[in-house]
Design brief:
By secondary structure, the chain is an alpha+beta fold. The protein has helices spanning 20-25, 31-40, 52-67, 75-86, 95-102, 191-197, 249-258; strands at 5-6, 12-13, 70-73, 105-110, 117-122, 126-136, 142-147, 154-169, 172-185, 200-209, 215-223, 226-234, 240-242, 263-266. The longest helix is centred in the N-terminal third of the chain and has 16 residues, at 52-67.
């Protein structure tokens, strides 16, 4: 992937639930708390398409650190908090954020200690683990769109429920066990390859931040028996490029950490 891919609710992946009783009892995060968590994310352009995953996954981790339990986020609260925190009117919001709101994707998070991971058999020490599910209250079975402002232009598709494991391991942010999202670049170096076999399913994504705000993402997409793994670096202003820029030993070191073996044994998860 030549740049970071962003889904309709900020899931960045390459190509980037709970039991019913837990869902019924999950407290809803107050809009003011969402605004505060979104505002706490600083040092990068939060409106850039390529930075949406960074913003939203880290907000979920921040909220989980405060609550350490099961909680829900209403789609309307998420959207209004996003606009307020960034000082935007509705038309100014990124397309991915507006579509997530239009299709009414509520969020359910299980951040209970010991509820997500059994053990980390290989990799850095685990700081936090979440089960995350986005589900369309509107009942949209599937929707697709092209983000013409992304670089390259992206074609993305989302199922009614999108779910994933969100981990923080010694400063690394990892999305694994992803269900319900696929996509492909329409322009750029990999567009020809994807024209040959269509959209790829998101497999996993790993990211880390440098001290100056640059982000390194390593991810993998899958189409049938074929997989493709790649690295992308994203500047704080949202500019993205394939690989690691020359002369950035710190980013190369982050890439090396992200490519190290990671083997996590997860607890069973009934997704609905």
């Amino acid at each position: 992937m030549p740049v970071r891919w962003t889904c309709g609710f900020g899931l960045a992946v390459w190509l980037v639930v709970l039991p019913g009783c837990a869902r019924a009892q999950a407290p809803v995060v107050e809009r003011a708390a969402l605004v505060a968590a979104l505002r706490a994310e600083q040092g990068y352009e939060r409106r850039a398409t390529t930075n949406q995953s960074r913003l939203q996954t880290r907000v979920l981790l921040r909220l989980a650190a405060e609550r350490q339990g099961v909680f829900a986020i209403d789609h309307e609260d998420w959207f209004r908090a996003y606009l307020e925190a960034l000082g935007l009117d509705e038309p100014q919001a990124p397309l991915s954020v507006r579509l997530s709101h239009e299709h009414q994707y509520d969020i359910l998070v299980d951040a209970r200690k010991g509820a997500v991971v059994t053990s980390v058999r290989a990799g850095p020490s685990l700081t936090r683990a979440l089960n995350v599910a986005w589900r369309s209250r509107r009942g949209t079975p599937r929707y697709s769109y092209r983000d013409l402002l992304a670089q390259p232009v992206l074609e993305m598709s989302f199922e009614r429920t999108v779910s994933y494991r969100l981990l923080e391991l010694s400063g690394l942010v990892v999305l694994e066990d992803i269900e319900g999202i696929s996509g492909r670049p329409v322009t750029g170096a990999l567009a020809l390859l994807f024209r040959l076999f269509g959209q790829a399913r998101a497999d996993w994504s790993r990211s880390a931040l440098a001290t100056d705000g640059w982000q390194v993402v390593v991810g993998q997409g899958r189409k049938g028996p074929f997989t493709r793994r790649a690295t992308v670096t994203i500047a704080p202003d949202g500019r993205a490029e394939q690989g690691v820029p020359a002369g950035r030993a710190d980013l190369a070191e982050l890439e090396s950490r992200l490519r190290q073996p990671l083997d996590v044994l997860y607890k069973p998860w009934r997704r609905e």
